[in-house]
Give the backbone structure.
Amino acid sequence: MADQGGSQHGIARTSRVRTDEQRQRDLDRIAKYRDLEGQMRALADAGDYARPDLLALTSRLLRLNPEYYTIWNARRRCLISGSFSRPSPGSSCLTACSSTSRTATTAASSTTSSSSSSAATPPAPASQTAGTTGTTTENPAAAEQNTSQPQPDPADAEARDLATIQSELSFTIPLLLESPKCYWIWSYRQWILEQAISRLAPSRARRVWEEELGLASKMLGKDRRNFHAWGYRRHLVARLESPDLAGSSLTEPEFAYTDKMIATDLSNFSAWHRRSRLIPRLLEERGADDEARRAFFDYELTQIGEALNVGPEDQSLWYYHQFLISSLTTPATHPAAAMTSSLSQQERVEYLSREIAEIKELLDDYGDVKLVYEALFEYTRALCEMEGREATVGERGDLERWLGRLRKLDPMRRGRWEDLRRECGLSAE
Amino acid sequence: MSQTFDQLPEELQLATSAHVKYIQSLDTRKDEYDYWLTEHLRLNGLYWGLTALHLLGRPDALPRAETIDFVLSCQHDSGGFGAAPGHDAHLLSTVSAVQILATVDAFDDLETRGKGKARVGEYIANLQNRETGTFAGDEWGEEDTRFLYGALNALSLLGLLDLVDVDKAVSHVAACANFDGGYGVSPGAESHAGQIFTCVAALTIAGRQDLIDKERLGRWLSERQIAGGGLNGRPEKKEDVCYSWWVLSSLEMIGKTHWIDRDQLVGFILRCQDPERGGIADRPGDMVDVWHTVFGLTGLSLLKYPGLQPVDEVYCMPKSTTARVLGR
């Protein structure tokens, strides 16, 4: 159905004919890969997930192919059976947690963290040599070895779990940097973080999660629009705010983060979107009164107006502008209405009229930018609707003229312009 | 419309036989490293290839018996399917398995030689989060509107939609809606064309299109077409053939396909073909793959490109199949 993994993106087409040498190289790589896979399956089929060599095999395979979800699952089983100090029913999986009330692992793991710690720590053999992976200098291989030491004391057990969690987090970083759109890596990392909640003292777990925000920022620094990273960030914030992590609101710093991202790149629709979502909570938490809300709204309108003055071709900016305007035009249930709920009908009309006038001024410099006409058309209709009246003769003339410009400047969407014309009862050109 | 296409230069004709050969060759490439690296997508790949062949009017180009055998060999006792034998069960491969079996009319084989429809339905139903209504991809708990759509798609094909709480699923989709009319991967996420397809199709299967703000959504979707004719998936991003499906099918479901320029999109998709060796790429001149091949063809089918079989905009399967299975 829908999974983009494994598809080719942006790779230039080359001749598909390989030289004998290239073909041989492929065959060698296949043999090596399949051999690893065969070893891994043999151990997994035997069901002994506590074996550290099985964990080491998953590392090697995942470095070759981070899209191989079955191997990520095997790795989770390895940690549950071996590396972690105790198997936790909440840490395994949905089917193990419950068959009646289905909840996500995130919820399940937080309720089962008090489960018996008397489950014997499996005496994981410490004999595994990192040398078998052929990557002795790499931190994760070494960490795998460290974390498999038997540690019976509870404090030691927690230290060992922390080491395992940190080792897993560092193992996935290079993979994530190489495949920043790989769903499986993000979801594995999220699972590891949940382990921190169910296995570590709250303050330690919280530190792990807080540090993770740094990773989200790093990934967004590399690709400002990566929706995996934005989603991950939202998840981190929601969990950091939750009672599971003894949290409190992060709305202010998150809002400041959108400021920073927008200052770096005005065109970042993802950041504008995030901002739009944070505003209602921000105003609520600031205890903003009517005046403060209105001042906030004015500030946002000014900011976006200035941005549009230099970049009226940018859809991202117009979407945010529409978001602000919709707080004037839509019922109070709209999330944006948090800014404008105290405004009277007359004030709303004044705001919208002023915006329309300012956008008209954009036409002096940007007479051939279709988004300007589109905004004028939409907002003028919204104004009539708000006032519960038909368009005046002058407005009808404007609407017809703007629609004519839209048809000319943007013939790709002529079907839409034609629908709009009919809907508004405007004359055909 | 067909007159317009006849006037296209020769390089903009659909290379039908090359595409058929390309898809047929996919399972013979066992000496290529990529063949093994993409095994976790094998069942999805079979669905993509099979659907493409059906749209190209060559439903028999893959051997039916072997197709069914392979699909059934991926099934677990739980009822779920893995991507290939030895791979864990996952919702994405389970949906592909159901779609393939529906397309080759082999639900009977699932009953007699597989674990049966009921077990598949149970596997999928168990992945629903009964509190929020959304679905996980597997027992490890990743949630996404892709999985919600996949579950409704497969369950409705199996006639087992009543195993899940459809109303809750619908509420979850509604919670993913944004002010711009689009939908994201989860509540709070920005609108994304792929996710819009999954949400709009899920609402369509549930009979709840009334929840969609069609004007705003249609506007957002139509703005995805950019210079050159291709579609992007989000504002200010590059175009990519796969959005010829995600964006276009969504427009089709809300009755606004005419809000973009059909001829220019047809031209863009055809320029992404490899006319000699077959297959379609994300953009002109790039490497082809079966994923972009099927979504290029489903896009062309929605655009009524001459000679292609009609595709169902909700299920991404041949219309003849959904008509037979769903009786519509």
User: Anything to note?
Assistant: Strands of chain B lie at 280-281, 288-289, 311-312, 317-318. Chain B touches chain A through 85 residues (CB under 8 Å).
